[in-house]
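Before the break, one more example. Copy the sequence into your notebook; we will annotate it together after we see the structure.
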Amino acid sequence: MSRYQTSRRVLIDDAQPVRYDADDSAASETLSNDDEGSLKLRPSEGNVTEDQEPFFGVKVRRKASLHRDYRGDYLDVPSRPYLMKILEKQGDKIIFFADKVLKFTGSGKMKKRILLITDFAIYIVDPETDALKRRIALAAVDKICLSELSDNFFAIIVPTEYDLLLASTRKSEIVTVLVEATKSTSEYELEVFFSNR
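Here is what the structure looks like once it is written out:
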């Protein structure tokens, strides 16, 4: 049991997509024990700014997500005519992110979907029927909810419509892209909320 009570330091690269202006700086987080004997993540001490702490030093990170290069378009959208047709019909041209995700319905069913993030909207496309299922304007997104655990789940909160619960192994990149996209297209910064409820 004593192996869980030691402190460890984890080095995290501040990897950003190529299209964004970012520093090549590193950050660190520290795991520590609380009074109940469980491990909690606390922001590291020292000369580390809040910008360098991934997810504000609150979220536990998986090892695979620490040293990953962001590509953005994992589906090669220009080679898929049905996706290009959907984007052209809506008037979007710049694609920040494209990948396959799992969408969870209100009844708890999982459905495979394609997630596209452009400079103006989020698209959910059914890969089986090649049909657009949902388009959410970035201005309509209120916040993104994440748990404090190392899982793949995240929720996109849209107050004017229903919320969107998704799972992806590239969650860190999706959250980063959404925050940067809303920051560049509007005057507000998208809130990232952490809760285990």
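Residues 21 and 189 are 16 Å apart (CA to CA). Residues 171-185 form the longest helix (15 residues). Try to locate both features in your own notes.
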